[in-house]
Design goal:
The protein has 108 residues and is mostly helical. It has 4 helices and 2 strands, in the order H-H-H-E-H-E. Helix 1 crosses helix 2 and helix 2 packs across helix 3. The protein starts with a helix and ends in a 10-residue tail after the last strand. The relative contact order is 0.16.
Length: 108
């Protein structure tokens, strides 16, 4: 699976944060400014949205993310999944791909 540009950038940011405690602290305390400084250009957050980085590197703590509630209006099935569902094959449960309701565009 090909990573999106956002995923590639997040991968680099996280790996840098693992190695550089100052950079990690900056991501946590000033995420937008730190990312923009790292990229050398502005990022494009959707209006009314913010970014938060949480340090989950403490192995003695189990971190659980509470995602946004699923809006069933945003559930989309691929053509293959629609074919599976319409074919009535009871042995296959197609995965549901959900578009996040809190971000409609790329960020970086």
């Amino acid at each position: 699976m090909e990573l999106t540009n956002d995923q590639k950038i997040l991968d680099v940011l996280v790996k840098k944060a693992w190695k550089d405690p100052t950079f990690k602290n900056d991501l946590i305390t000033r995420p937008v400014a730190t990312i923009e400084n790292f990229l050398g250009r502005p990022i494009h957050l959707p209006e009314g949205k913010s970014i938060t980085f949480v340090d989950q590197t403490d192995s003695s703590t189990i971190f659980i993310n509470i995602p946004a509630e699923i809006n069933m209006e945003d559930v989309e099935l691929s053509e293959e999944q629609l074919d599976t569902v319409s074919g009535g094959d009871g042995d296959i449960t197609p995965p549901i791909i959900i578009k996040p309701t809190n971000s409609s565009s790329t960020i970086f």
